[in-house]
């Protein structure tokens, strides 16, 4: 996918770039993809040659210069302070930058900010006075170049190697491994340094060229997805601009629908035994093992018993007092319990304890690669469960009524089908006969 789709920068949002490993290329590549005009500036300084990457360059020295800008032309406009030493373009004064931000918001213009110094190395550790990120930015992109892996810790490959050493414990001349990059990027003194509270954290692992570095990138992404809102993997050197980002790793929340009254069964299906544990505990354990986070369970009937069975698990219990109205209300209560910045959610059913962590993980990985609105297993030409929904679908899901679940919105969005061969994952339990069939399918005794 292209960089703008992966970052999902809304009109008039402000984004800061920090780090190294393609920061300048990423910033201008994104600007070319956004609706014009787009403003680029810096809080520190830029090399003079970067003027050539913009359609127009203006030196801004006062608030009056900002007010006089023409925002009617389609262009990339680079705004900086005057030239300084070594042909460097100085950053804007804080008050001028604040005025520029206000002006861009009023005019509906994206604002991209270079937030620290770089030396065009693959990797960087920030100095004491870096990065310089305004408190009002909406998103921060932390850049890291994967070609630094396997290289010795040296100024030829790492900008500010002395700070890299302090953060990671790696000595000069020693080889940079995956674990060192993870340490750097998850440190409040490294990749996370200076990111304002409330700003979306985006990590871009650039230079993922070839199967070896792509595999390393996946390993790093999985280790850091709890520290960043998104981890992008890709290469700015991709021949096709639409393929710059090959994968987007995000935290996928899980919502377990466990509110039903089990009328046909005659006993709470959530508490039926499956391999020595209640159904609901199996579902929770598999979701946690697969990395769904945060995890919520929506209860209705038998709320107290079900809540008690989950008291030792890191799962949020959300009671739906309107559970009798149908599955739609429980689905919507679950959505309402998720964080506002939740990128995607997977709905799991309490009467399918056999759904494995492996299937859940493969659905999440499929979504990371293709980023379609809905990702679902396809088993023997039938739609299976669980199903993953992106944020794009949330408004539609909130309009579903009655005893319908997410299936009600399938016709409104593109669906990415994950082929799956285990037909047993189509089974659920509504009656005692269903339970006996499910146990028999797994050679379990009653």
Summarize the model shown.
The protein is an alpha/beta fold and 446 residues long. 27% of the residues lie in helices and 23% in strands. It has helices at 3-7, 23-33, 63-67, 94-107, 161-168, 178-186, 211-224, 279-289, 303-309, 327-336, 357-370, 394-397, 432-441, and strands spanning 14-19, 38-42, 45-47, 56-59, 76-80, 88-90, 111-114, 123-124, 139-145, 158-159, 200-206, 230-234, 245-250, 252-258, 273-274, 277-278, 295-299, 316-319, 344-349, 374-379, 382-383, 387-390, 415-419.
Strands, helices and their partners?
Blueprint: H1 3-7, E1 14-19, H2 23-33, E2 38-42, E3 45-47, E4 56-59, H3 63-67, E5 76-80, E6 88-90, H4 94-107, E7 111-114, E8 123-124, E9 139-145, E10 158-159, H5 161-168, H6 178-186, E11 200-206, H7 211-224, E12 230-234, E13 245-250, E14 252-258, E15 273-274, E16 277-278, H8 279-289, E17 295-299, H9 303-309, E18 316-319, H10 327-336, E19 344-349, H11 357-370, E20 374-379, E21 382-383, E22 387-390, H12 394-397, E23 415-419, H13 432-441
Parallel strand pairs: 1-7, 1-9, 2-5, 2-7, 4-5, 8-10, 9-11, 11-12, 14-17, 14-19, 17-18, 20-23
Antiparallel strand pairs: 3-6, 12-13, 15-16, 19-22, 20-21, 20-22
Helix pairs in contact: 6-7
């Amino acid at each position: 996918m292209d960089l703008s789709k992966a970052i999902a920068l809304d009109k008039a949002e402000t984004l800061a770039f920090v780090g190294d490993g393609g920061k300048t290329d990423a910033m201008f590549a994104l600007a070319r993809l956004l609706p014009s005009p787009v403003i680029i500036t810096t809080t520190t300084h830029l090399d003079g040659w970067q003027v050539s990457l913009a359609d127009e360059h203006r030196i801004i020295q006062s608030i009056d210069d900002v007010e006089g800008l023409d925002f009617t032309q389609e262009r990339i406009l680079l705004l900086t302070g005057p030239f300084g030493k070594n042909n460097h373009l100085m950053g804007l004064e804080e008050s001028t930058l604040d005025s520029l931000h206000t002006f861009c918001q009023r005019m509906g213009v994206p604002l991209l900010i270079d937030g620290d110094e770089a030396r065009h190395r693959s990797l960087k550790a920030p100095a004491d006075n870096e990065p310089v990120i305004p408190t009002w930015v909406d998103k921060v992109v932390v850049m890291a170049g994967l070609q630094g892996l396997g290289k010795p810790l040296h100024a030829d490959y790492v900008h500010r190697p002395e700070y890299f050493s302090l953060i990671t414990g790696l000595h000069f001349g020693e080889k940079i491994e995956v674990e060192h990059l993870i340490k750097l990027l998850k440190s409040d003194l490294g990749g996370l340094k200076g990111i304002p509270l409330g700003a979306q954290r985006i990590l871009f692992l650039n230079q993922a060229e070839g199967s070896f570095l792509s595999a390393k990138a996946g390993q790093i992404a999985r280790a850091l997805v709890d520290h960043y809102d998104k981890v992008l993997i890709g290469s700015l050197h991709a021949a096709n601009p639409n393929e710059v980002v090959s994968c987007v790793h995000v935290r996928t929340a899980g919502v377990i629908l466990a509110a039903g009254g089990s009328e046909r069964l005659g006993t709470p299906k959530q508490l039926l035994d499956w391999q020595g544990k209640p159904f609901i505990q199996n579902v929770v354990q598999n979701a946690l093992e697969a990395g769904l986070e945060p995890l919520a369970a929506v209860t209705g009937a038998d709320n107290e018993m079900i809540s008690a069975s989950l008291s030792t698990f890191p799962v949020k219990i959300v009671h739906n007092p309107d559970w009798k109205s149908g599955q739609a209300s429980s689905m919507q209560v679950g959505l309402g319990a998720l964080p506002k910045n939740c990128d995607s959610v997977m709905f799991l059913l309490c009467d399918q304890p056999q759904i494995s962590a492996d299937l859940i993980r493969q659905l999440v990985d499929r979504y990371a690669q293709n980023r379609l609105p809905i990702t679902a297993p396809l088993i023997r030409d039938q739609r299976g469960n669980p199903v993953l929904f992106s944020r794009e679908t949330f408004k539609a899901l909130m309009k579903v009524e009655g005893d319908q679940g997410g299936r009600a919105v399938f016709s409104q969005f593109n669906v990415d089908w994950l082929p799956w061969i285990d037909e047993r994952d189509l089974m659920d339990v509504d009656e005692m006969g269903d339970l006996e069939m499910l146990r028999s399918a797994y050679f379990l005794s009653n």
